[in-house]
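Dear support,

I submitted the protein below through the web form. The confirmation email said the job was done, but the results page showed an empty box. After a refresh the structure appeared. I'm attaching both so you can tell me whether what I see now is the final result or a partial one.
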Amino acid sequence: MSSNNATDFQSTFPDKDRSDASSESASDISDPEVPARFPPANQDRRKPGDASPARKSRKRSGRWKGMVLICPPPGGQEFATETTTDIIHAELKLLGPLLRLPAGKDVNVGEVTKLKAAEIILMMKSNAPVLWRMLNECLATNTSVQKERGKVIMTIISILCYRRSHHSNLLPKILAVYLKFRGVSTRGFDMLHALGLVMSYNWA
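What the results page shows now:
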């Protein structure tokens, strides 16, 4: 009895029809009230105009225009930071003694007029190339002037060296003598000394 029923069932629904039914895509039989939980793998879920998740546009004018910033791999940014920091520390250690005045040498107003910023800038660029390049890139804009940018970087590096050792006092000493000659008050010296720009009033 059951064998006859199975034969009748197969004759009613042949194998060809069943194979066609099984080959239908599951996406064609989805419930309209229950949306698909995940879109197909080949479907882009980003909206038009969205940036790629693997990169971000670096919107800067000039020579940076159109460049993209690639997301670093895990641990890559930390490694780059530590490596760059070690290089900068080594450069400052090398540059520090070059910014020292000879012991016991008095600096007068005449020394201020003899100071050439271009010579100090060249010395800093030669002995601290990575630090100089990093600061130069940070200050690079379309409106900045290269000459004025060099003086700013010179001042920043001078502050760093002076903070590491008060013996690296070439620029702070000369600026202190000049400002003292111009009649800057003791309170003004204290503020500029706290910023690392000049030596203290007593040392000047």
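Response: this is the final, complete result; the empty box was a page-load delay. The beta strands are 55-57, 68-70.
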